[in-house]
Specification:
11 strands; two-stranded antiparallel ribbon; homodimer
């Protein structure tokens, strides 16, 4: 397999884009990424999206978007794995380019969620769980996560406020991100007083939905050296990529507080990159709910079982800490257009590795990890990026 | 890239499966394929499906099905390209195995379409076209194809009855297929008198929807020789695989009667296999409508522009003809569970290449071609299979 590098990135703000269709959003991110890459064409297009069938009455997204952006006759396909669809699309594009099946690809994650009838989006998101055994009982996605958080607090003795730092950190980091959905800081008091959604998850434990698209352009590293087209920027390499699954329903797992699929995909990605958790400089994790940030950190080797809240309380997850998370706001404050979030994470890591993260630039950013979760820990995709 | 072989196949009947859920249908095909392959496990699962989000309120299909069939922790993902989703999933699985990213994969195409409110399935299928520029005007999928057929008859001077043999042949071949949705023969009179759907497309020009699943197990060829696990059957190799796109809307094409994406993907697959159209023994084409069978034959090099109806009239497409099509009934009579059809085609080609096609066994079946179409010629995937 060839080493693959990210030579272009693009993103739209995560927002309520009433004036833009799904393909227009995707196009905006793709055009930015192609301009950033200094290219006008690629061999293939991989679209990460979860909800276009239910919310936008649109499928065949691959060709819809390829046609719209002028990728004439290019191979194009949509990849879906619920909220990790963007990361799964990246993996599909990566395998296609790494294997030599194609010499360049653009991967776009896109979602348009806000232009829906009341309740429609919540119902559509429940499709990430087992429709016949979970959703049918009226269990919404936030309710599933609330049960997990409740259990975690019970097992390990943490209070609700012990989770505050995950949300506070994400919001603090979003302030300087022009593409963030909620670019404002919150205090611990805000967190404590936030409206309850599904006990113990309150509004500030949960990430906001949104419309948005993010894109990356992939080429094999060897094509660059011969053409010298890295534009003088540090070369961003995909050093590790892996995906694993667990049972789709949490009630089928021996331990509902252990994300096996995160542990497996992270372990595989570490091995590919020849790294250990200690070598990761920052972690764009899937903080759709604060409990998910906690479980990701534990399964990925950054904290022992039941210990991750300590990382927040000790300052380890903030910009100057041992393992900064959500450096541009994360799902919590940049926003979570579900099928796009996995690509947003990788775009943001690339900004950090290139030294283009503006006021949020980390001092040490050589190796960043992204982890994206589809369903309640059912599908988990881990990518490790490195600057060279 | 490693050479990849199909070592297991499975399928359910195409029918109205009121008693089975989407995952149960998929599971049935997967279990059959694994048993046929003599395996209990694979590294990855690729699901081809178009409509689960809109008709079944279910996404995250990869892990849903992996969990159901006991592929514990396996990488799993859904691939979508409208009616060619199954073929696109096959390509994704093929690239993953050929590249060495994984050492085995199962690809399943599955669709559950009949358990829907009246009109719901037609509306859901319109998602294969451009929602903003075609579907919004009330243009259904059959209406788009009717406009194309009308145009074809006008340009080339064929009468409606000149298309009869495509439907008659498919139905004749379905009689001996226990999995066919419409396993009965039709006469030319039946064809002429069939109820009009969207002029000039009548009920016997159109394929029936249905519920169904088909699956194949892929491994690299070199893994077989060392383990000697081809079970004494001819080895079925994927000799060519390519996908291309066109504009999503027919009105944007210079010639609405030329399937550029078919021509491009077929040309690429021929080149990979080192073959010409003359070398193809039979062709499982995408006869969702008889006009699509005609256009596929022309774009794939089996007839000149405007000439394919002659292949029907001359008997070339029947079982003893030069280029038999729809040997187990095709989309027309085996049935068209949209996201599954691309995998059904490949399962049926494998049966022919193994000499397991029963009463429909072709005398000469060394090389078979499958072509699957997503949208009105928007995404087209071509595979060439060979027995060795």
């Amino acid at each position: 397999m060839r080493k693959v590098v990210i030579i272009g990135i693009g993103q739209t703000p995560v927002s309520e884009h009433w004036d833009k269709s799904l393909k227009e959003l995707a196009g905006e991110a793709i055009f930015s990424a192609l301009v950033d890459a200094g290219r006008t064409n690629v061999d293939g297009l991989f679209v990460g999206n979860m909800l276009s069938g239910s919310l936008n009455r649109q499928e065949n997204l691959g060709v819809l978007i390829a046609d719209w952006v002028g990728l004439k006759h290019a191979e194009a396909v949509k990849v879906e794995s619920a909220c990790s669809s963007g990361a799964s699309a990246l993996r599909a594009g990566l395998i296609a380019v790494a294997s030599g099946e194609m010499d360049s690809a653009v991967v776009v994650g896109v979602e348009k969620m806000t232009d829906a009838r009341p309740g429609e989006t919540t119902a559509a998101l429940a499709a990430a769980a087992d429709a016949d055994y979970e959703a049918v009982h009226g269990l919404s996605f936030v309710a599933i996560n609330a049960l997990v958080m409740q259990r975690y607090m019970h097992e390990y003795g943490w209070k609700h406020t012990d989770f505050a730092l995950f949300s506070i950190t994400a919001h603090a980091n979003a302030v300087n991100n022009p593409n963030a959905r909620l670019p404002f800081a919150i205090s611990e008091e805000d967190y404590r007083k936030a409206r309850m959604v599904a006990e113990p998850i309150n509004l500030l434990d949960a990430s906001p939905i949104g419309d948005g698209a993010a894109a990356v352009v992939l080429v094999p590293a060897d094509s660059l050296r011969s053409r010298g087209s890295s534009n003088g920027r540090p070369l961003v390499t995909i050093a590790g990529s892996a995906s694993a699954t667990d049972t789709i329903a949490i009630h089928d797992r021996p331990n509902p507080l252990w994300l096996s699929a995160a542990a497996l995909s992270a372990r595989k990605a570490y091995a590919q990159a020849g790294l250990l958790p200690d070598d990761i400089d920052f972690f764009e994790l899937h903080d759709a709910f604060s409990i998910m940030a906690v479980l990701s950190l534990e399964a990925s080797g950054f904290a022992g079982c039941g210990q991750a809240p300590r990382l927040g309380l000790e300052g380890s997850i903030s910009m100057g800490g041992r393992i900064p998370i959500a450096t541009m706001g994360g799902l919590k404050a940049r926003g979570h257009p579900v099928g796009a979030s996995g690509v947003y994470q990788v775009v943001e890591i690339t900004l950090q590795l290139r030294g283009q993260a503006g006021k949020n630039q980390l001092e040490r950013a050589r190796t960043g990890m992204a982890q994206s979760i589809g369903g309640s820990g059912a599908t988990i995709v881990t990518h490790i990026l490195r600057s060279e």
